[in-house]
Amino acid sequence: MSNDVVEIQVRGVLPTANGCAVFIGNDKKVFVIYVDHSVGSAITMFLRNTPKERPLTHDLIGHIFAGLGVRVERVVINDLKNATYFARLILCAENELGKKIVEIDARPSDCIALAVQQKCPIYITSKVFNAVEDMSEVLKRMNHEGEDAAGPEADQHE
After folding, report:
1. What's the longest Cα–Cα distance across the chain?
2. Residue 9 predicted with pLDDT over 80
Protein backbone atom coordinates (compact mmCIF):
# COMPACT_ATOMS: atom_id res chain seq x y z
CA MET A 1 0.00 0.00 0.00
CA SER A 2 1.51 3.33 -0.96
CA ASN A 3 1.88 6.24 1.44
CA ASP A 4 -0.87 8.34 -0.13
CA VAL A 5 -3.61 6.57 1.82
CA VAL A 6 -4.61 6.53 5.48
CA GLU A 7 -6.15 3.53 7.23
CA ILE A 8 -9.49 4.22 8.91
CA GLN A 9 -12.14 2.26 10.80
CA VAL A 10 -15.84 2.59 11.48
CA ARG A 11 -16.12 4.52 14.77
CA GLY A 12 -19.90 4.62 15.06
CA VAL A 13 -23.22 4.45 13.24
CA LEU A 14 -26.04 6.73 14.34
CA PRO A 15 -29.56 6.93 12.89
CA THR A 16 -30.66 10.23 11.34
CA ALA A 17 -33.99 11.42 9.96
CA ASN A 18 -33.02 10.40 6.41
CA GLY A 19 -30.75 7.41 7.01
CA CYS A 20 -27.64 6.85 9.11
CA ALA A 21 -24.46 8.78 9.83
CA VAL A 22 -21.43 6.50 9.60
CA PHE A 23 -18.53 7.96 11.55
CA ILE A 24 -15.24 6.68 10.18
CA GLY A 25 -11.68 7.68 10.87
CA ASN A 26 -8.72 7.08 13.13
CA ASP A 27 -7.10 8.64 16.21
CA LYS A 28 -6.30 11.82 14.24
CA LYS A 29 -9.66 12.56 12.62
CA VAL A 30 -13.19 11.21 12.30
CA PHE A 31 -15.58 12.20 9.52
CA VAL A 32 -19.12 11.32 8.49
CA ILE A 33 -20.58 9.59 5.46
CA TYR A 34 -24.38 9.59 5.30
CA VAL A 35 -25.95 6.36 4.07
CA ASP A 36 -29.48 5.01 3.68
CA HIS A 37 -31.10 3.10 6.55
CA SER A 38 -30.63 -0.35 5.02
CA VAL A 39 -26.87 0.03 4.55
CA GLY A 40 -26.51 1.67 7.97
CA SER A 41 -28.36 -1.29 9.50
CA ALA A 42 -26.16 -3.76 7.60
CA ILE A 43 -22.97 -2.04 8.82
CA THR A 44 -24.28 -2.07 12.40
CA MET A 45 -25.23 -5.76 12.18
CA PHE A 46 -21.79 -6.67 10.82
CA LEU A 47 -20.08 -4.65 13.57
CA ARG A 48 -22.14 -6.48 16.22
CA ASN A 49 -22.02 -9.90 14.50
CA THR A 50 -25.82 -9.95 14.65
CA PRO A 51 -27.31 -13.23 13.38
CA LYS A 52 -29.95 -12.84 10.67
CA GLU A 53 -32.84 -15.13 9.73
CA ARG A 54 -32.19 -14.70 6.01
CA PRO A 55 -29.20 -13.30 4.13
CA LEU A 56 -29.40 -9.60 3.35
CA THR A 57 -27.93 -8.06 0.19
CA HIS A 58 -24.40 -7.67 1.57
CA ASP A 59 -24.57 -11.22 2.95
CA LEU A 60 -25.53 -12.42 -0.52
CA ILE A 61 -22.60 -10.57 -2.07
CA GLY A 62 -20.27 -12.08 0.54
CA HIS A 63 -21.62 -15.58 -0.18
CA ILE A 64 -21.16 -15.07 -3.94
CA PHE A 65 -17.57 -13.90 -3.37
CA ALA A 66 -16.88 -16.95 -1.18
CA GLY A 67 -18.44 -19.29 -3.75
CA LEU A 68 -16.25 -17.83 -6.48
CA GLY A 69 -13.10 -17.88 -4.36
CA VAL A 70 -12.95 -14.08 -4.23
CA ARG A 71 -12.10 -12.06 -1.15
CA VAL A 72 -12.35 -8.36 -0.46
CA GLU A 73 -8.73 -7.29 -0.06
CA ARG A 74 -9.41 -3.66 0.88
CA VAL A 75 -11.57 -0.67 0.11
CA VAL A 76 -10.36 2.82 -0.69
CA ILE A 77 -12.41 6.00 -0.41
CA ASN A 78 -10.68 7.82 -3.21
CA ASP A 79 -12.55 11.00 -4.06
CA LEU A 80 -14.94 13.66 -2.83
CA LYS A 81 -16.86 15.79 -5.34
CA ASN A 82 -19.80 18.08 -4.52
CA ALA A 83 -20.22 16.48 -1.07
CA THR A 84 -20.36 12.99 -2.63
CA TYR A 85 -17.76 10.37 -1.73
CA PHE A 86 -16.41 7.85 -4.23
CA ALA A 87 -14.75 4.52 -3.47
CA ARG A 88 -13.04 1.52 -4.98
CA LEU A 89 -13.60 -2.08 -3.94
CA ILE A 90 -10.39 -4.11 -4.36
CA LEU A 91 -11.07 -7.83 -4.85
CA CYS A 92 -8.58 -10.67 -5.02
CA ALA A 93 -9.16 -14.05 -6.64
CA GLU A 94 -6.51 -16.72 -6.33
CA ASN A 95 -6.48 -20.24 -7.73
CA GLU A 96 -4.14 -22.75 -9.36
CA LEU A 97 -3.78 -20.45 -12.37
CA GLY A 98 -2.57 -17.50 -10.35
CA LYS A 99 -3.74 -14.38 -8.60
CA LYS A 100 -6.02 -11.73 -10.05
CA ILE A 101 -6.75 -8.31 -8.52
CA VAL A 102 -9.93 -6.56 -9.63
CA GLU A 103 -10.75 -2.95 -8.76
CA ILE A 104 -14.41 -1.94 -8.91
CA ASP A 105 -16.07 1.45 -8.62
CA ALA A 106 -18.63 1.23 -5.81
CA ARG A 107 -20.57 3.36 -3.36
CA PRO A 108 -18.56 4.00 -0.20
CA SER A 109 -21.50 2.79 1.89
CA ASP A 110 -21.46 -0.63 0.20
CA CYS A 111 -17.66 -0.75 0.40
CA ILE A 112 -17.76 -0.01 4.13
CA ALA A 113 -20.43 -2.65 4.72
CA LEU A 114 -18.43 -5.28 2.81
CA ALA A 115 -15.17 -4.29 4.54
CA VAL A 116 -16.75 -4.65 7.98
CA GLN A 117 -18.38 -7.94 6.96
CA GLN A 118 -15.14 -9.34 5.49
CA LYS A 119 -12.95 -7.81 8.22
CA CYS A 120 -10.66 -6.15 5.70
CA PRO A 121 -8.97 -2.75 5.88
CA ILE A 122 -10.59 0.53 4.86
CA TYR A 123 -8.39 3.29 3.48
CA ILE A 124 -8.94 6.87 2.38
CA THR A 125 -6.65 8.87 0.14
CA SER A 126 -4.64 11.48 2.01
CA LYS A 127 -6.06 14.16 -0.29
CA VAL A 128 -9.65 13.34 0.71
CA PHE A 129 -8.74 12.75 4.37
CA ASN A 130 -7.13 16.18 4.56
CA ALA A 131 -10.22 17.78 2.96
CA VAL A 132 -12.88 16.34 5.29
CA GLU A 133 -14.09 18.12 8.40
CA ASP A 134 -13.04 16.54 11.71
CA MET A 135 -16.15 15.31 13.54
CA SER A 136 -14.33 13.64 16.46
CA GLU A 137 -15.86 15.97 19.03
CA VAL A 138 -19.37 15.49 17.63
CA LEU A 139 -19.02 11.69 17.87
CA LYS A 140 -17.58 11.96 21.39
CA ARG A 141 -20.48 14.21 22.45
CA MET A 142 -23.10 11.90 20.90
CA ASN A 143 -21.57 8.82 22.53
CA HIS A 144 -21.48 10.61 25.87
CA GLU A 145 -25.13 11.69 25.52
CA GLY A 146 -26.07 8.13 24.58
CA GLU A 147 -24.35 6.78 27.70
CA ASP A 148 -26.15 9.33 29.86
CA ALA A 149 -29.53 8.42 28.34
CA ALA A 150 -28.92 4.67 28.62
CA GLY A 151 -27.75 4.79 32.23
CA PRO A 152 -24.62 3.35 33.84
CA GLU A 153 -25.42 -0.29 33.02
CA ALA A 154 -25.34 0.42 29.25
CA ASP A 155 -21.56 0.00 29.11
CA GLN A 156 -21.82 -3.53 30.45
CA HIS A 157 -23.57 -4.81 27.32
CA GLU A 158 -20.80 -3.95 24.87
Report:
1. 57
2. yes
